[in-house]
Amino acid sequence: MSTAKEVVDMLQLQPHPEGGYFREMYRSGEFISGDSLPIQFGDSSRSISTAIYFMLEKGNFSAFHRIKSDEVWHHYEGAAVEVVVIHADGRSEVLPLGKDYAKGQRPLQVVPAGCWFASRVTDCGFALVGCTVAPGFCFDDFELADRDELIACYPQHRSLIVDLTR
């Protein structure tokens, strides 16, 4: 297995605003017009789909954020990842992403549109995953959580929010 730095260099990954490293690998050349999309997208068109590589190292995390589309996570290499989700109704859940099926991990997990979510590596080392978004990802649809505002909305998850926000 390669080191985290080797993977970053070989795949030409860049720092992501939420934490970790990423590189967009696919953006559909076809678009969905704004008037055909659900209301949360406004009137702007979106690519049909996008996909990125995303890498996290132990000790780093992807901070709570949300987007307007469903996001499908795929595990490629390395340590398992916890994808922590806070649903609008206040429920939280951990989606275990990895390949140790006996421990409940799965190589594919889905974060529903509009949910707050964060992720972190559960073991030592790093994890290389992929994230596919449809309609395609647009930074206009990305919202990084403010710690105090998220705690005010979901005080029952204070500890998680403090751990996974900057």
Q: Roughly how many Å is the radius of gyration? A: 16 Å
Oligomer: single chain
Strands, count:
13
Uncertain segments: none
Mean pLDDT: 96
Number of helices: 3
Give the CA-CA distance, first to last residue. Answer: 30 Å
| SSE series | HEEEEEEEEEEEEEHH
Biggest β-sheet, characterized?
6 strands, antiparallel
User: What share of residues are in beta strands?
Assistant: 35-45%
Give the % helix.
Answer: 10-25%
Which strand order does the major sheet show?
1-2-5-12-7-10
The dominant shape is globular
| Class inferred from helices and paired strands | mainly beta
Explain what this protein looks like in three dimensions.
By secondary structure, the protein is mainly beta. The chain contains three helices and 13 strands; from the N terminus they run αβββββββββββββαα. It has helices at 4-11, 147-153, 158-163; strands at residues 14-15, 21-27, 31-32, 46-47, 50-57, 61-66, 70-78, 81-86, 92-97, 108-111, 116-121, 126-134, 143-144. It has a six-stranded antiparallel beta sheet, with helices on one face. A five-stranded antiparallel beta sheet has the order 9-8-11-6-13, with no helix packed on it. The chain has a two-stranded antiparallel sheet with strand order 3-4. The two termini are 30 Å apart.
Task: Give a quick summary of the entry.
With 166 residues, this protein is mainly beta. The chain has 3 helices and 13 strands; from the N terminus they run αβββββββββββββαα.
